[in-house]
Amino acid sequence: xxxxxxxxxxxxxxxxxxxxxxxxxxxxxxxxxxxxxxxxxxxxxxxxxxxxxxxxxxxxxxxxxxxxxxxxxxxxxxxxxxxxxxxxxxxxxxxxxxxxxxxxxxxxxxxxxxxxxxxxxxxxxxxxxxxxxxxxxxxxxxxxxxxxxxxxxx
Length: 154
Hints:
five-stranded antiparallel β-sheet, 3 helices
């Protein structure tokens, strides 16, 4: 378990070093509690720029993942000028599918990636962001790894 966590952390930090963007640690503004991580992600072999997210079970069902994913998609469009972003979600993970849908993404296709089935949700830079009205009342702040400054969603 510790080795897997260290490898995951190395992936996240390395992605920042190689691409200049990556996952942010998401922190609840009200309590300062760590909620999970979210951000643009495009490792080798991925089909497109992904908005990935993983949140602690205690924060599920409270809208934090939807808020963070929507903000990170806007951030990815501005930073990388990507015409589209995707989210890769296991077909059984209904909660994550709803997060992608709330951010305006739609199922594009299904695929197998690294031996696991994935549903590909796709959103375009021109698509409206249903959660963009929360921009000024965000409940989540994000802190980039490696001592970068706080990220305030665009």
